[in-house]
Design a protein that fits this description.
Blueprint lengths: L3 E5 L11 H13 L3 E6 L7 E3 L4 E3 L5 H8 L5 E2 L10 E4 L3 H5 L4 H4 L7 H12 L4 E4 L3 H7 L4 E2 L14 H8 L3 E2 L8 E3 L4 E4 L8 H18 L1
Parallel strand pairs: 1-2, 1-6, 2-5, 6-7, 7-11, 8-9
Antiparallel strand pairs: 3-4, 10-11
């Protein structure tokens, strides 16, 4: 039987939702591997809406589930209905929506809170010993919820190629172990069944991002 993988989205658009290229890469690689993706998003208001041309917030108000449905081509469910029993794995792509809508990392960093629904889902997969794939900024969710876990968001030294490297330092302060890696690489925490990769935390050509996400998907399915 095809493996069933929950993919949790956080809106639509890198600056206020899910990073579309990462979500698309996840879905393409799952499809190529013969796995069945089941898409979910929380039915909540977005933290804010960003004009992606100007890079500035607007007065608009949007809903995370409704916006995520754009990526899912309408085939998406409320995260509150997710049942871990019928699923083999969980993947959460990145994008600022993870740090704004699924958690408060964007405004509070290591002192953030993770939304109750998202934390409940992560804990359910963890307790069931089912693998969790996280890319880009989404490994911060694991760093917050699972003390002592091993993750990667790329490198921990800021430079032109790694503009968000301070994220790694904040994660270390939460007690997790950060593993430096290249954009095409993944890190597998075998104890916690966490598979992480840096994706757009790195200034890299888009096909390298796509390949790194593919490596994450393959490892998640191997563990499922």
């Amino acid at each position: 039987m095809a493996k069933r993988v929950a993919v949790v989205l956080a809106g639509c658009g890198v600056f206020d939702g899910t990073e579309l290229h990462e979500a698309s890469a996840v879905l393409v690689h799952l499809s190529r591997a013969g796995a069945q993706a089941e898409l979910y998003a929380p039915n909540i208001p977005q933290m804010h809406v960003v004009d992606h041309v100007k890079g500035q917030p607007t007065p608009e108000q949007r809903n995370v589930l409704v916006e995520s449905a754009r990526i899912a081509r309408g085939n998406i469910k409320d995260l509150a209905t997710l049942d871990v029993k019928g699923l083999d794995a969980l993947i959460i792509p990145g994008g600022f929506g993870v740090a704004k809508n699924l958690s408060t990392w964007a405004t509070q960093g290591k002192n953030c809170s993770v939304s109750k629904e998202v934390e409940s889902v992560l804990r359910a997969f963890h307790a069931a010993h089912k693998p969790i794939g996280l890319c880009c900024i989404s490994p911060v969710l694991a760093a917050k919820i699972f003390p002592g876990c091993e993750v990667t968001v790329g490198h921990d030294t800021e430079c032109e190629q790694w503009p968000y490297a301070k994220t790694a330092e904040a994660m270390k302060e939460l007690g997790c172990k950060h593993i430096n890696s290249q954009v095409s690489e993944v890190h597998v925490d075998t104890r916690n069944l966490l598979v992480t990769t840096s994706a757009f935390m790195c200034n890299a050509p888009i096909h390298h991002i796509h390949d790194g996400v593919g490596s994450m998907v393959r490892e998640v399915l191997r563990l499922a």
